[in-house]
């Protein structure tokens, strides 16, 4: 589609033509000339713009979910956002990342092949420092991971894969399984060097440390689900209609679920010394007036007022009133 000119650009163009700064014949000649676009066969563009936009949308959701997950796990400030989405040869991607870094290689069943998540050492060691009780400072040294560091990073990567699965569930029911942790990308050969991959770069901040998380998705692995990445597919996908009998069965199942009821006769406070000295037959004074109704808890929450009594020689309580929300018994 041709670019649409603004009113200001149109006025400037007409002014240039009227003053002679521009020649209309030259403009027409340039327009008639063939416009040739250079195409590099080594950098084959195998993903359409529509598919790239869909991948960007999926990983924007992934970055939001991961921000929440890591913030809760590390109890510090975490901010993750999509910085770029590019398609390039696998060999070029490997050459673009640090020589020593943290690489999470994982299978993405039912997809046939392996995916890669690369975590910059700055981010990785900030996470490790935080998990070990530090402030989240980073030391940019990756030689070999110790057994403890490997264990901790495995747990972090597992959390990231669970979030990755959630972000992709609108496209495919994926079950990512971690395969290995590597530190040297030169020894990692997932696909052929010329294979086109999509690299989603996530700008990541953990505390005061910043770095990148790169997700590498080979075309050969995503090929079978590429049609699902089109806007047309998403627009045509309808929500599954609920079976008319399904709601009724669900209600019956919920009604049959066991529920614990608890009548609170009252409470009392004593010291630990008094508690240790309790013997059989001792009497505790409760804070419950004999004329006040009892609280009846359902599932741990106060739901009813009740009065104590007896039913067929069994101790029982009789519900006298329902506790309305916001009107808790004091």
TrEMBL record:
<protein>
    <recommendedName>
        <fullName>Flagellar motor switch protein FliM</fullName>
    </recommendedName>
</protein>
<keyword id="KW-0472">Membrane</keyword>
<keyword id="KW-0966">Cell projection</keyword>
<keyword id="KW-0283">Flagellar rotation</keyword>
<keyword id="KW-0975">Bacterial flagellum</keyword>
<feature type="domain" description="Flagellar motor switch protein FliN-like C-terminal">
    <location>
        <begin position="253"/>
        <end position="323"/>
    </location>
</feature>
<keyword id="KW-0282">Flagellum</keyword>
<keyword id="KW-1003">Cell membrane</keyword>
<dbReference type="Pfam" id="PF01052">
    <property type="entry name" value="FliMN_C"/>
</dbReference>
<dbReference type="InterPro" id="IPR001689">
    <property type="entry name" value="Flag_FliM"/>
</dbReference>
<keyword id="KW-0969">Cilium</keyword>
<dbReference type="Pfam" id="PF02154">
    <property type="entry name" value="FliM"/>
</dbReference>
<dbReference type="InterPro" id="IPR028976">
    <property type="entry name" value="CheC-like_sf"/>
</dbReference>
<comment type="similarity">
    <text>Belongs to the FliM family.</text>
</comment>
<keyword id="KW-0145">Chemotaxis</keyword>
<dbReference type="InterPro" id="IPR001543">
    <property type="entry name" value="FliN-like_C"/>
</dbReference>
<dbReference type="InterPro" id="IPR036429">
    <property type="entry name" value="SpoA-like_sf"/>
</dbReference>
């Amino acid at each position: 589609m041709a670019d649409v000119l603004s009113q200001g650009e149109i006025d400037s163009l007409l002014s240039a033509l009227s003053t002679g700064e521009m020649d209309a014949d030259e403009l027409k000649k340039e327009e008639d000339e063939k416009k040739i676009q250079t195409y590099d066969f080594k950098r084959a563009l195998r993903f359409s713009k529509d598919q790239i936009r869909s991948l960007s949308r999926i990983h924007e959701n992934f970055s939001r979910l991961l921000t929440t997950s890591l913030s809760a796990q590390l109890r510090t400030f975490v901010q993750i956002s999509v910085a770029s989405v590019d398609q390039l040869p696998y060999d070029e991607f490997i050459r673009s990342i640090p020589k020593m870094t943290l690489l999470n290689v994982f299978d993405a069943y039912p997809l046939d092949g392996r995916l890669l998540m690369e975590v910059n050492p700055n981010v990785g060691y900030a996470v490790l420092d935080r998990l070990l009780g530090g402030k989240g400072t980073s030391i940019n040294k990756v030689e070999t991971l110790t057994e403890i560091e490997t264990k901790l990073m495995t747990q972090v990567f597992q959390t990231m894969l669970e979030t990755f699965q959630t972000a992709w569930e609108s496209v495919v029911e994926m079950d990512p399984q971690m395969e290995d942790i590597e530190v040297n990308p030169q020894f990692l050969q997932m696909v052929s060097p010329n294979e086109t991959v999509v690299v989603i770069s996530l700008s990541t901040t953990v505390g005061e440390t910043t770095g990148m998380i790169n997700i590498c998705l080979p075309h050969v692995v995503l090929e079978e689900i590429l049609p699902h990445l089109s806007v047309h597919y998403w627009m045509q996908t309808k929500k599954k209609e609920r079976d008319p009998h399904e709601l009724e069965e669900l209600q019956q199942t919920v009604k049959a679920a066991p529920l614990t009821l608890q009548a609170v006769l009252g409470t009392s406070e004593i010291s630990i010394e008094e508690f240790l000295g309790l013997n059989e037959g001792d009497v505790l004074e409760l804070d419950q007036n004999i004329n006040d109704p009892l609280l009846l808890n359902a599932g741990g929450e106060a739901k009813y007022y009740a009065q104590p009594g007896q039913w067929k020689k069994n101790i029982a309580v009789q519900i006298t009133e329902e506790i309305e929300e916001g009107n808790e018994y004091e």
